[in-house]
Every structure is written in C-alpha cells, then in structure tokens.
Design a protein that fits this description.
Layout lengths: L20 H14 L5 E2 L14 H12 L12 H13 L5 E8 H13 L5 E6 L3 H10 L2 E8 L5 E2 L1 H7 L4 E7 L11 H14 L2 E5 L15 H4 L5 E6 L11 E7 L2 H17 L11 H6 L4 H21 L4 E2 L8 E2 L2 E2 L5 H12 L1 E2 L1 E2 L12 E4 L4 H19 L1
Parallel strand pairs: 1-13, 3-4, 3-6, 6-7, 7-8
Antiparallel strand pairs: 2-9, 4-5, 8-9, 10-12, 11-15, 14-15
Helix pairs in contact: 4-5, 4-9, 11-13
Length: 402
C-alpha cells in the first residue's frame, strides 16, 4: 500500500521574528570545530568553563539535600527556608515593600513567568536596546510587540529617558531594566533609577528589574536596587545563583515582587497559576540558596579581582585596535565594543570566527541604535587566553579594514 503524502509540519508564525544570537552562532562554530580547529568561545557567560568554581559550602548544601532524598517535587513557589533567605536578602538590599517571593528554574523562567502573566497579544513592554535577547524571544512567543528604548553609549550606556518616554503608548504594560546590564556592563545611577521609577508611576507600569549580576560590581562601585528607591512602584526583581554564586547549570533563579499590595495582587495570582502548572523548580539545589546568601562571601573578592583585571585588559585592547572603541563596563563580565567598519557586524563576527577561530556575538543580535555596529565580548577567560584573542582580533581588523 503506497504511503500517503505527508504535509509539512510548519512552526507557528509568531516564531518568525524570534532570535537568540548567543546560541545561534554556536551552529557555525560547530562547523569550524569539525574542520579540526580549536575555537575560543567568548560568546557565552558561563564562568564555570574557565577558572571560576562554585563555592564549596554552596555545593555541599545541594549535595546534602540529594543524599537526604530531597529529590521529589518542591512546593510550587519554593521550600520555606529558601523563601525566607531571599526575603532577608531583599531586606539587606533595602526593599521595604516585598509582597511575594518565588523560585524558578533559572532567572530565565522567572522572566518567562512574569512576561507571560503580564502580556496580552498586541501589548508591549519596554526593553533596553541593546538588550539580552531572552526578553525579545519571550515577548515574541507571547504574541506581544517588541518596543525598545535606547541605551546611550555617550553616557556610559545609561537609559535614554527621552526615548523611553517617546516609546510609551496605550498598550505598554511595563519596563524592563537590566542592571548591571548585559551586554554593556553598565550600572544605573541612583538618579537614573529615581527617574525611571517616576515614569512607571506616571504611566502605571510594572518594572521588571533584572539584577542577576548585582554582586559582580567593579571599581568599588555600588549597585542600587530600584525596588529600594521606589517601594510604592510595582516591581519584580530577578536574582539567582547562576552568576554571583557561579552555578549557572543549577538553574536556580528567583523573583521578588514589591510595591503596593493591592495593586500587584492580581498579577501575583496570575504568576502563581503558571508556577503551579509547571509543578516546581529544581528541588535539591534550593537548599543551597540560604547557605549562599547567608554564608561566606569570600569567593566574591577573588571573582571581582579577576574580572577587574580582565575588564581592564579588554578595554585597553579594544581601544588599541583600529576602528574599535569600548566604554568600560562597571559590572558583570561583558564588554560591548563599537566598530567602525563598512560591513555589518554580523559579517565581522562570522569572518572573525572563520579566519581566527574566535567566537564573539554581533551587536545586531542584541539590537542596537540604527547606524551603529558593535560586538559583545565575554571577558571570563584567563588573561593569557584573552591576550592571545585580542592580538588575533587586532590583526584581523588591521588586515581586513586597513
């Protein structure tokens, strides 16, 4: 009996504009590796593939939980001791109006839960440009509309408040603030946070404050949580173990909801529906949250020392490379150099990979102000690796664009 013709199974139309450049480029890199070349990956913010190690007392707590058979489902919001520790951390950060806390499978799931609970089809939420592409990917998935506000490179990548105000319309539901920022490494000033909070008040908007890098601050600077300067504004503050505590593979993130209790109650109930539907976040790793937040923080001293030296090397190398300039990052472990070249930054990144076997991410993969071209560097590798990479990039730029 002849087989019936099988009609092609096509994906949903809403995926047409979905992009995730950080991972998409890895497909091209795999082809280079198969040709026998060793690729230096400067595209993914995973500290554990270099000389960064999860603090031992944090590992021990998770291992003990597994040995104690804490391997079933957890409560949908999280185990009580983790929630208490996160609330205490919120208090230390100056948050005085916390209404709810829950733990997720990484901060990425927290973003998904917040945006899914918030957005109807056709709504929009303001996201920074450049942005971390997870936000635009989830917005695309919900059927909402991408609405970006610019970060000002000439002002240390601070948000452009005038552009933010211009972009608000009748379907705008919230503002995403990534602080410290990925991909630029910028940190918002207190005055900037106060002004963003005022915009949210004026237009009755939710703020989603992504603070996953809040302990990785360079130059002795300070990261201020926007929830601490605007206790009356509805805010969801995102954190987790992945970056500060060097455990990205554990997928442990959390959300802290603050603001007026009556105002946020319906939104919180919506998020809880989604949390119950997915049962729970990773269970044994939740027992590491309290030891991480309340135990020794010594590892941060060494982490910041390494990142500071690698940041300085990155900035000086970029500024010494023809056609390239870089605003110094003040937090996290990313730099976002600008390049003055006649072709697209996606072409630059692809040709750099094929010629020098170095993988960075093109700025257009994060969105960027029209007419500008950038690429993102992850400066986590050891200095000797970075020196070699930056020498190769300098050689590539000099030969290709001289």
């Amino acid at each position: 009996m002849p087989l019936a013709h099988t009609r092609e199974i096509t994906p949903a139309k809403r995926l047409d504009n979905l992009r995730y450049a950080i991972r998409d480029l890895a497909v091209t890199a795999d082809g280079v590796v198969k040709q026998g070349h060793k690729v230096l990956f400067l595209n993914v913010g995973d500290p554990n593939i270099y000389d960064f190690v999860t603090p031992p007392h944090v590992v021990q707590a998770a291992c003990k939980a597994m040995r104690d058979n804490k391997n079933g489902y957890a409560p949908s919001t999280a185990i009580p001791e983790a929630l208490e520790a996160i609330r205490a951390e919120a208090a230390r950060k100056g948050m005085t109006s916390v209404q709810d806390v829950f733990v997720t499978n990484g901060a990425g799931e927290a973003v998904d839960v917040c945006l899914t609970a918030l957005l109807n089809e056709g709504d929009n939420v303001l996201t920074p440009c450049p942005d971390y592409p997870l936000y635009s990917a989830i917005i695309c998935k919900t059927g909402a509309v991408l609405n970006t506000y610019y970060l000002n490179e000439d002002d240390g990548w601070q948000p452009d408040l005038n552009d933010m105000r211009r972009k608000i319309n009748s379907r705008t539901r919230g503002i995403v603030l990534i602080n410290p920022n990925n991909p630029t490494g910028a940190i918002c000033t207190r005055r900037m946070l106060e002004q963003i909070a005022e915009i949210a008040r004026e237009h009755n908007l939710l703020i989603i404050a992504d603070e996953i890098y809040d302990k990785l601050i360079l130059d002795g600077g300070e990261q201020i949580s926007i929830a601490s300067v605007a206790p009356d504004v509805p805010i969801v503050t995102l954190g987790g173990l992945s970056k500060n505590y060097l455990a990205p593979g554990w997928r442990i993130g959390w959300s802290i909801v603050s603001g007026d209790g009556a105002a946020v109650k319906p939104f919180v109930e919506g998020m809880h529906k989604l949390l119950r539907a997915r049962l729970s976040a990773n269970h044994p790793e939740q027992y590491a949250i309290k030891p991480a937040l309340e135990g020794p923080q010594d590892h941060l001293v060494e982490v910041i020392r390494k990142l500071s030296a690698r940041r300085d090397l990155t900035v000086s190398s970029c500024n010494a490379t023809p056609h390239t300039s870089c605003v110094p990052p003040r937090g996290a472990f990313y730099a976002f150099p600008r390049i003055d070249i006649p072709e697209g930054d996606d072409v630059f990144v692809r040709e750099l990979l094929l010629d020098k076997h170095i993988l960075v991410v093109h700025g257009s993969g994060f969105g960027q102000r029209p007419g500008s071209k950038h690429f993102r560097i992850v400066f986590l590798p050891q200095e000797e690796l970075l020196k070699k990479a930056y020498s190769e990039i300098r050689d590539f730029v000099a030969k290709r664009y001289s």
